[in-house]
Every structure is written in C-alpha cells, then in structure tokens.
Amino acid sequence: MLFLLITCFTFITFLYKSLSLKPLPLWSSEVRLLSIHFWKDFLILLNPFKKGFLEAGFIHFITSRMSIRRKSFSSRVENVDPNLEMSVLDLPELALDCILERLPPEGLCNMASVCSFLKEKCKSDYLWERHMKEKWGRVIGPAAYREWQWHIASRNDSSFFNQAKQRGFMTYLSQFWPISLVSRSNFSISIKKKHTASVDSVMSWYLALESGKFWFPAQVYNRENGHVGFMLSCYDAELSYDPRTDTFQARYPPHGRRAIAIETGVTWDRLRAPPLDTSPHDLYISDCLTELCPGDHIEIQWRRNKEFPYGWWYGVVGHLETCDGNEIYCRCHDSDIVMLEFNQYTPGSRWRTTTIDRKDHREEGNEADGFYGGIRKLQSNEEISMWRHLWPTDALE
Would you say which domain of life the source belongs to (predicted)? Predict the structure, then answer.
C-alpha cells in the first residue's frame, strides 16, 4: 500500500507540472475549482493510511495549491477599477435636493462655487427660506422686509445709472475702436453679471444680514443696557449684526434735543420683530378695550413728551378702587374705566397705576407724567414669559 501511495504521488506531481507548462483553455478555471472538491474527497479516502512525513508533506502540498488557485480566481473575479469615482452630480435630483436641504448656509455657499449647475441649485429661495426662518424669523418682520425692498430698489437705481453712463461711454469709444472690441467687452460684462447672485433672492438677504452691512428695523427690550428709566419697555431701533460677537448694534432715533443713541452688545434675547406694523410716532388704535378684564396682560404705548417716539411698556389690568378683588362679586369689566397697573414700581410711585376710558380712549397724559397711547392685549404665553424673564430684581421707584 505504501508503494502504491508513493507511485500515485509521483504521477500526480509529474502530471501537474506538465500541464502547467501548456496554455489552458478558458474553461480551465472551472475545472481547477472542481478539482478542489476532488482532492478533498481523495484526502478523506487516504485518511486511514496517513503516516508521519507522508501526511505532512502531501497534505501541505495539496492545500497550498488549493489556496493559490482560490486566490488567483478571486483576484480575477474582483477586477474592479479603483479609480472609478461617482460624482454628486450623478445622483438623482431628489437625492441631491435632500442633501442640499441638510447643508448649513456655509455649506451651501461652498457648494455653489463648484459649478454653474450647483450654483443655481444652491441659490434657490426654497433652501434659504428655512435658514432665514430658523435664525432670523424672530427678529425680522414686515418693516424689515420693506426696508430690504427699498435697499434693493436703491441698488438697482444706482446700477441702472452706472449702466447708462457706461453705455454712453461705450458709444463714445465706438467712434475710435472697432465694433468687435466694444461688443466683446460688453459680452464679458454680461457674463460677470450672469454669475453674480440675484439681488432680490433670499440668499442675498440672508448674507446681507449676516455681514452686518444691512441695517433693519426691530424692537429692543430694556434699551440702553437696561437703563432704569427703560425697564420693562420695548423701543424701536435700527439694528446691525456683528458676526464676530454674535450680538447687535442698536441705533435709536433722535428725539427732542437728544441725538441718535447707539448701543452695542445687544443680545438676541433682547430683540423682537415689531408685533404691530405701526410707526413709533403714530398712535395705535386699540381694538381690545371692550374685552379687557382684571388679570389681563397688556402693552401700552408711552412717551415722555410729544417730541419723543412711543415705546411699549408692560402692565396688567387691575381692579378698580371700589372693588375688593373678589372674583365672584367683581364688576370691573362692566365699568367704562380700566385700571392699569405697573407692578415693577413700588406702591405709591406715580408710575404705579393709571386709568383709561374704555369707550373713548385717546392719548392721555401730561408733560409731567408722560403720555399714554394705544393698548394691545397679550395673547400668547411666550410674550408674557418674555416680560417676566426681564423682570427687575429690585422694585423701581
């Protein structure tokens, strides 16, 4: 039996070497793979006769050849070009839109500089409206939008004037230069204009706000760094954003003999969009007087004198002096007189309370105590909690 095994081993070795020197047909890979199973079965048959060095040498030879054949076959199957890469432009349009929707403003600006196709995509108002609402929605109102439209109109007028001047200059140059040179210069100018961002796009508005170059109207709580004379008030101002400190610079309009007041370092939590589209110099016509009841939270216009702009001051509706405050017997809501309380002031202060006429309320007051204007009732808990957040630690006198 040992002689038979040695003879078979010699014959198989000779046959393998002789076949490896000749070119094999295309189906040789499959045949070699089938031979793997053959050698496994053959080894099982030889299992009772394996002895010493024969077992080690023969099995090592067969298994090593099997692993070499397996590796060579897998390398041919996985013949993929590693330099082949997929571009983001190869994605379906819906997938590309989903990616762009998740990019921050900085990412959209970077993506817009890749190519003209992505530039048009990244300038879409649909993408920038979400960023505008998330960051600027709480401080931007209709007044700021009108200011932006006026800003665009002024830029368009200036650009039209410059184009008219340039067109006249080109007409003058055409008398001396060839027409082709003049038209070529006009073509290069039109190409530059084509690749600039649209002035009236949401992207342009967002970037103008971020740069701090655009001043927009809004309202500031506790103006002039919380000066005691403006506690629990909200005044109109023009604001400019400072991206380095993430704060604002406020510019309050002049009033009386006072010049423009400027305040720096105004934080986001002290800003709001004007809740009413009313000029700070106009009296607001109240529409809530008939429904005011004790306990209602209100804002009322107040100004020092006729030359000052109005500011909005926080207060609550209180009980009349003839009422003991018992809710069961209270008839304050039936009276024509409404009691307003400003509890941030100490009892006995001249600023603590005031009364208005429910049926015929106009601007009321005098030069000593100031003038009270229109009233708006606070409907949302968010507005009420904002005023409570600004409540002074010490009572005012």
Answer: Eukaryota
Domain ranges of the chain: 91-123, 136-152+202-274, 296-390
Q: Using only C-alpha atoms, what is the Rg of the chain? A: 42
- Give CA–CA dist 241/265, Å, rounded: 10
* 3-class DSSP state of 246: coil
The answer to whether residues 145 and 138 touch, using CB atoms and an 8 Å cutoff, is no
Distance CA 374, CA 135 (A): 31
pTM comes to: 0.67
Q: Nearest-CA neighbor of 108 among 133, 99, 209, 148?
A: 99
Pairing of strands 216-221, 297-303: unpaired
Q: Is-contact 235 223, C-beta < 8 A?
A: yes
Mind listing the pLDDT tens digit for each residue in 234-258? Answer: 999 999 999 999 999 999 988 767 7
Could you tell me which residues are beta bridge partners of residue 298? 315, 377
Asked if residue 263 lies in contact with residue 252, where contact means CB atoms within 8 angstroms, the answer is yes
**Contact predicate 375/297, CB 8 Å:** no
